[in-house]
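Sample 1 of the test manifest.
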Amino acid sequence: MNRLVEKPSRKWSALRADFPVLRQKVHGHPLVYFDNAATSQKPRMVIDALRHYYEHDNSNVHRGIHELSNRATAAYEGARSRVAQFIHAREPAEIVFTRGTTEGINLVAHSWGTEHLKPGDRILLTQMEHHSNLVPWQLLAQRTGAQLLYLPITGRDGLLDLSQLDSYLTQGTKVLAMTHISNTLGTVNPVAEICGRARELGVTTLIDAAQSAGHLCLDVQAIGCDFLAFSGHKLCGPTGIGVLYGRRERLEAMPPYQTGGDMIASVDYDHSTWNQLPHKFEAGTPHIAGAIGLHAAMDYLDAIGRNDIFKHDQELAGYAYDRLSSMKGIQVLGPSTGRAGLVSFLMESVHAHDLVTVADQFGLALRGGHHCNQPLMKLLGIEATARASFYFYNTKVEVDRLVDVLGEIRKLFGS
Amino acid sequence: MFGELSELYQEVILDHSRQPRNFRVLDGANHQAQGANPLCGDQLTLYVDLAGEVVRDISFKGAGCAIAKASASLMTTSLKGKTRAEARALAARFRELVLAGKSDFSNSDKLAAFAGVHKFPARVKCAMLAWRTLEAALTESPERVSTE
């Protein structure tokens, strides 16, 4: 095969120089960071943006009249506008800053869900949801008397069974919440097609974009969802900052999630009124530096080009899929083609935790376990998988290294 | 060739993980407890047949990594014929071994193979799972044990 000997393109390897953390050895070996689905590394310009803010502009936002507060407010609201542009929202008021994907989903489940669901209503999820897009809905169902439904997957190839979509959407279903890209299977779900059908049937939609926002071009209007949530730290931004997108008419019809400063219009001892969007949903001092760091991360990604990033991710995942699948005793989960930038796999008679422990000693950062997908793992009859998840700074040479190390692991556990 | 790894995955551990001893349901068990590492997905059920204060027989079933399985297997082989108090004392010594690397086990004691675990903090809970479950099984009203 030609591509086995193909050199990584200069462009992608060159980007590694932007990431200080990648220049190190772990246990005496060059670090191979393959845990990007958990969190990505941070480029120098994001780290510099955080430092610049704290060294020059640090202040609280919105209520200040002095110069530093004006600068901090401009930077924070500038980040909001940048996010709106990044995902093609109609206006910055549709962008709520959160701590991350999890908080965004919890916000919708609490605020929208408690207001709009009644006993007997159905909440539709899929069998491949991360716990963060499952547990909030379970609790909502308990609070409201609504019921949960799960759109099935077809098996270990990890595709949604779309032939059943209509029947699941028409059983009194009020809301559909689903992942864009599966963090365990690598499946890329056709969210625009699914949201389009849901919309025709009057079903509210939420997309968990944790695994997609940093890897491909997101257009919330083209997808046609009502809500979409993602985290900054998986797309080269800081931890602790995330985004909830909501269509204006949805957000306006929702009560506040948390209450306190900044989210009010007026407060009296016996009642209060709420601030306008999006501030109604941002109680307390926000993660100002986080939003600024996220702005820098989005600029960084777009300078590379998200279409190119996704192409690179997919090439790497396809290459890893082919190489791992051809190894004796290795089974790769998820679709054989069109997968996102990760491979989740099983090695015969070697537990994922043993595999990941040994890989670490060779400088490889993998993840092993149930990946916050316990119901899916039980469905597939699996205890745990090992996962290698890629980003644009990873190379085929690193995938080759993974294959070599898996050979060593096989030798160690000799079976 | 594997450095610290060969300290962790000693031959006796690999052997017991591949072919765990006393790996069965114990029909005559009068004590039983379940243990789990929820974040890992490891889980095991421990069966103990106590004759008065003496462990007459002991076995386990479950799923987990090599460290968890080998630890459970070697624990069961070490406890047959021991009193409840002796079993608890052994559990305390084992805990010191995997948490701090402090070993008063003789080299001929197979449990000494776990001395390398303390250099891998993320794996301590794997080695401890069976022993934590033992504590529960030896009490009168066992509960489900979680090491996280």
